[in-house]
Amino acid sequence: IGRYFIDFVHPNDRNIFASQVTKGLVTPKNTNQLHDEGQSQSELYSTLFCRIRRYRGLMNDFKVKGKSVNHVPFQLKLSFKNISDNDGTNIFLVIRASPICSSFEVPNEVTKNDVSFIIRHIADGTIEYVEPEAVGYLGFLPQEIISKNVLQLYHPEDLMYLRQIYEVIVKEGTMQRCKSYRLKTQNGEYLKVETEWSSYINPWSRKLEFVTVKHHVVEGPTNPDVFQMVTANNEPKLTEEQKIKSQTLIDDIIRTMNEVLTKPAEIAKQQMSKHCQEFASYMENFWDDLMKTDDESPAAIHAPENKNNEEDSIMHGLLSSYQYFSDSVSSTDTSLS
Fold this sequence. Notes:
Layout: H1 14-26, E1 45-53, E2 71-85, E3 88-99, E4 116-122, E5 127-130, H2 135-138, H3 142-145, H4 159-172, E6 174-175, E7 181-184, E8 190-201, E9 208-219, H5 240-259, H6 263-295, H7 298-301, H8 310-315, H9 320-332
Antiparallel strand pairs: 1-2, 2-3, 4-5, 4-9, 6-8, 7-8, 8-9
């Protein structure tokens, strides 16, 4: 009591914690209006994952400084609460912390139910989104895995197969659930997943923007504690030749995502060309019809100058442009009930 909570948060997670306290509560995930005394007037909360320091107890002596500092992953739910007393109203930050445990209990555990999580990465392999459900299976917190290169998480021996998958994705746009391959966890081990693949092609640049993967967990890692940090003892050892081969395959996959002409992009190009041709043909026919109307209307051309004939101006397009505009607006607007 009396200590700052942020002192117990892992140093690498303090920025995300401070950011969620400010930004997360401005755009809350849930709002329930409450008016009971002691309750918050607006129950706004924000969730995040972070590691909290484990308590170092006094066992046989008072040498606490010599003991190693361990942090445990938690999911936090943050909210503000107004409490009134004789001194006035004070605002408190309420933190509900739930420990996060590994989703696996035994080595190489085979999943009985269909469990999955989604990861999205851009064309150079950089991860830009991961579902919270992935935390218990990979051992990485969202802020740890975002901005990592997903290709570095693939097992080196599976990169040859994955290069073929990315070639199919880039050319076809999607791929159904593939056969199993290995994905690295926080502790340096690998779990087995089967993946559904999809991609987004920018219709203007006709280049691949990002790939969305839905991983179905098939088998857990040899070490079921996915949150255990990698050490020199459990870090996978690769020979220099294996490292060069892995990096070559990774470079090939990145080159495939950025250079290979995709089938969806070619379809988008053809559709855009077709629309342009149709529009040009429409404007050409419209102009020809308008010229014919002018040639076949001598009365309108030789009309007396002192006669103000609105109908002639309508026929010559002064009002038809407005009418076309108003019709197009009415066809796209949606009435509000």
